[in-house]
Amino acid sequence: MVIWTDRPEIVSYVEFFNVAQNKAKAVVVYKDKLAVSLPPAKDEQNPDIVIGSYLRNSRIKKNFAAVDRVFNRSQIHPSSMYSPLLEYGKINGRQYIIPVSFNLPTVIFSQKNHDLVGESMLIDSDMLRDSAGSFNQKSENDVFVKMGYAPSWDANFIYQIAKAGGAEFGEKGTVFSWNADSLASTVSYLKNWSRDKNGGRTAEQDFSFKYLYAPKQKLVDSERCLFAYIKSDVFFDIPSEQTETISFRWFSKDGKIFVNDDITSLGLYRKTKNARAAYAFIEWFFSESTQKNLLERSMRMNLDTQTFGICSGFSSIKSVNERVFPAYYKTLLGKMPAEDSLVAPLALPSRWESLKERVIIPYLSDVTDTDSETAVKSIDERITVWRNQFN
């Protein structure tokens, strides 16, 4: 059986699979740009299983076979997984890809500032803005010496606010569509935040240049700033001795957490010639006991490929996050969000990372600049440039 993946961890998992049972054997083919590698070239051997990001797009039915039978004929029950993520992998009610792992937008702060944040594990942009604003402090020369937070410090945070604000980025043809009205509202919101709380983009960037040169966990611990935005996999990959004084919250909007775009999923390639072996792997992998063993093995062997959790994220199996993860990530005990709070991304084009990096992120950074007088190129103009240079 051949497994294509863009996740290095799968190599270790397959080694364990090949030793742990006798039903099938697997080999791994690493594909750096997995989503655009399908279908295989004429001279390539077809995969049987595909595991990676951005598999949910308009070609899903052309690339993958429905895998409903994995829930009908095995011990895997749909209720064991997060339902919003399962729905992400369905087309017309049929399951074409199965979620493997996911990450969440995370805000970190020093435990010394717990009273400014509150007890809820969710934090929205209004609370973050107001708490950060009250933390601000200026010198006698009217220059910021403490600044709670500025969205311009991290364009990925601006993107996350846009998602939470209803931007509705989704696949359209080879590129994407968006909700222009919601995006315009988000831009106004962010510019007002910058002006009202931090004195504008120039003041934010001056502060960043002077003070924000250390890792994010050290910045908040030093209390030079109140908050930092970080992906959950990056935060939980930091050695625990560096985060002993750090707390975290899930970034949300109206009680909903918008899952990061790069959900890792598994699909059965529709032209597989080893379906029986593929199903044996799927049934083996999607069990709490297997994933517990994988985590234990990774920690015990201190593998070079060791990363956070399962495939560098939270498991799609609820019980693994609730019962297994806290044994290795103690700060997660009782802090996993409710299933119904998760919002999966819309279907996205296979080249989404390139589009986001070269079109959306630069646009959001430019259009939220309160101090620039330069005309901002529209999203459509940037898409045209992207097509000519990178497509």
Quick rundown:
The chain is an alpha+beta fold and 391 residues long.
Describe the structure in your own words:
Helix content is 39%, strand content 17%. By secondary structure, the chain is of the alpha+beta class. The strands form six sheets. Strands 1, 2, 3, 4, 7, 17 and 18 form a seven-stranded mixed sheet that branches. Helix 1 links the parallel strand 1 (2-5) and strand 2 (27-30). Helix 6 (155-164) packs across helix 14 (352-367), helix 12 runs parallel beside helix 13 (318-328) and helix 14 (352-367) runs antiparallel to helix 15. The longest helix has 19 residues, at 180-198. It is globular, with a radius of gyration of 22 Å. The two termini are 32 Å apart.
Mean pLDDT across every amino acid position: 93
- What oligomeric state do these chains adopt? single chain
- Measured distance between first and last alpha carbons: 32 Å
Structural class: alpha+beta
Topology:
Elements: E1 2-5, H1 9-20, E2 27-30, E3 49-53, H2 60-63, E4 64-65, H3 69-72, H4 83-88, E5 90-91, E6 94-95, E7 97-102, E8 105-110, E9 122-123, H5 125-135, E10 137-138, E11 144-146, H6 155-164, E12 170-172, E13 175-177, H7 180-198, H8 201-211, H9 216-222, E14 228-231, H10 232-237, E15 246-251, E16 257-258, E17 264-269, H11 275-285, H12 288-301, E18 314-315, H13 318-328, E19 342-343, H14 352-367, H15 379-390
Parallel strand pairs: 1-2, 1-3, 9-15, 16-19
Antiparallel strand pairs: 3-17, 4-17, 5-6, 7-17, 7-18, 8-14, 8-15, 10-11, 12-13
Helix pairs in contact: 6-14, 12-13, 14-15
